[in-house]
Amino acid sequence: MRAAIRAEGLVKTFGDVRALDGVDLDVPEGTVLGLLGPNGAGKSTAVRVLTTLLRPDAGRAQVAGVDVLRHPGRVRSLMGLCGQYAAVDEYLTGRENLQMVGELYQMRTRDAKARARELLESFDLAEAADRLAKTYSGGMRRRLDLAAALVVRPPVMFLDEPTTGLDPRNRLALWKVIETLVTEGTTLLLTTQYLEEADRLAHDIAVVDHGRVIARGCADDLKARIGGERVEVVVHERELIGAAVAALTPYGTGRLSVEQHTRRITVPVRGGARVLADVIRELDGRDILIDDIGLGRPTLDDVFLFLTGHAAEETGPGKDA
Ligand SMILES: Nc1ncnc2c1ncn2[C@@H]1O[C@H](COP(=O)(O)OP(=O)(O)OP(=O)(O)O)[C@@H](O)[C@H]1O
Ligand SMILES: [Mg+2]
Q: Could you confirm whether the keyword Membrane appears in this record (predicted)?
């Protein structure tokens, strides 16, 4: 399959900071690449280079087969961008903002109006459509900004943390809009701090840290890489933890972990549901009362933590310094 987005050896430094330290990426046509990484990893810098907003110090990039450095104007006509910071015009209404984008891209007025109406509906902005954008709440602006990026249905889209600041209902609504776009053939590069979002939307994930791609694969590959399944048991009272650890140890393929305050014991296993059944019988045979038991697989959060040493949503500004 042809790559709709391709980057080779991108380097960008700001003073002492190597924001991009040799980034290679390729996104096959019609697929979604999720770019994951802690704050400051270089995600937005990569998006800015790929969308012609920033010149790299070294490396090459193509969007829809067009060289980003040599033909930035052509690249811009083939892509849509929604940045991390909203770019709406405060002194226009929501509807005017969207129609203006359509007209900038030379849509016929009638089509621009129809597209604006459709997007205002999809993003739950129909009621507020004729109010000035400066009266919108943060989440409403965010949605308007996203809608603006979708006016022209470009073949390649870049979304930099599109759902940050959206409530769960609007996040779901946006996911649906994105899924529809991808079904219709759009290629998408998406950065996100929400691993659930990457899990749901991305065909492929690139984990970025310190300006480099440190892992690449689909969510399941990445999960498999950090280890397999585990049995998680919550015993009924703390006094039972010692006995439960003794009972579980023979089933483990690695180190057990115990969380005293939640009375949760986690043990890595191999063999899935069969082991789970054995463990239940074992605990029952020893009269160890349990509140909960289950078979767990690593989440994408675990993968992120394992690969980068940061938890995804905890690394707010200042905390990772
Ligand atoms: N214009 C700039 N001038 C100086 N330093 C910059 C500039 N833009 C980015 N940086 C630095 O480059 C590094 C990467 O920043 P970038 O914005 O790409 O990170 P990010 O992965 O998007 O982070 P976040 O998750 O917080 O959005 C950071 O150390 C940042 O401080
Ligand atoms: Mg960013």
A: yes
Looking at ligand 1, which atom is closest to the CA of residue 45?
Answer: 18
Average pLDDT, stretch 135-146?
A: 89
* Whole-prediction pTM: 0.80
Q: End-to-end CA distance of the chain, in Å? A: 41
pLDDT in tens, 219-244: 888 887 776 788 999 999 999 999 99
Which DSSP letter does residue 124 get?
T
Which strands form 17-28's sheet, in the order they lie side by side? Answer: 17-28, 3-14, 58-63, 66-67
Report the separation in Å between the CA atom of 160 and the middle of ligand 2, taken as the mean of its atom positions.
7
| Domains in the chain: ranges and CATH | 3-224 (3.40.50.300), 228-297 (3.30.70.100)
Pocket of ligand 1 (CB under 6 A): 14, 17, 19, 37, 39-45, 84
* Separation between Cα atoms, residue 11 and residue 20, nearest integer Å: 5
